[in-house]
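INFO  loader      accepted 1 record
INFO  loader      residues=274
INFO  predictor   begin
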Amino acid sequence: MDNLPFRFGAEVYTWFMSNNGETYKGQLGHMIEVISKAGFKGIQPIFTWMGPLADADLLEKKLKEENIDLAAVALALDWNGSKETDEEKRIADEAIKLLGRFPGSVLCTVQIPTGRHDLTQRRKNLIDIVNTVSARATDKGVISSFHPNSPHSSITRTAEDYQVILEGLDPKVTGWCPDVGHIINGGMDPLEKMKTYSSLINHVHYKDWDGNPEFTLMGNGKVDFTRITQWLKNENFDGWIICEDEGQEALEDPDFVTLHDGKWVYESLIPKLK
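INFO  predictor   done
INFO  writer      dumping C-alpha cells
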C-alpha cells in the first residue's frame, strides 16, 4: 500500500535498554544502518545519547548515506523543579538548534520518571516546563510533541494524569505523542484515548504490550495495531509512526528486534489496512 498519509520510523531506545545505554553508547551510526535495512523511513534518536552524530553535519551525511530522515529527537530530562534548571535549558536549546537543521523533524519531549510524590504540583510544573520548551522550539520553527510514559514512578501514567497534563498543554506550541504501549500499560484503551485528544496528535509511538509484566515484541501482544493504524489512515494523520520496541529480546539483540519490526510493519500490519 503506497497511499498512506504517514511514514514509519524507529526509535533507538531499543538499543538503550541494555545496561542503561552503556552497551551501545556512541553507535548511532550503526543504529541508522539497521533501521534503514529494516525498511523504516526515519529514525528518532535520544538527544543526550547521540555521540559524535550530535554534530548536525555528520548526522546529515550519515542519514543521506542510508536514505532515511531524522523523524524526531527525544529530549528526555528530569524536569523536577518548578522550572527548568540552567543545565536542562541548555540541553533543550541545543536539541532545538539541531532540529533547526532538519525541517519537519519533531522535538519529542519526555520526562524521566523519578516518583509520584507531590503529584498535583509536579504535574503543574511539568505542564509549565513543557509549554515553555515548546514555545522556544516554535519560535525557531521546530515542531514539538509531548510523550507520556508509564513506569510506576512516572507522573504521566494514569487516566487522571493524562487528563490533567494533556488538557494543560498549549496547543499553539505543542502536540501530543501517544505511545500506544504506555497507554495500555496505564490501564487505558489506546484508540479511545487517541480519539479523545485527537486534535493534539502530531507524532505517534508504537510498542506492544502483554502485561507480563509489561512490553513484548511487536505483534506478539494485545495492542490492536490494525484498528489503531486504520483509524490514523482514516483521519489522514500525516506525521510519523515510530516503533519503539521494548520487548525483552531487545536486551540481547536490538538489531534483530528492529529488523523484525520492519518486516512486521510492512508484511503483516500494512497489508491489513483498507
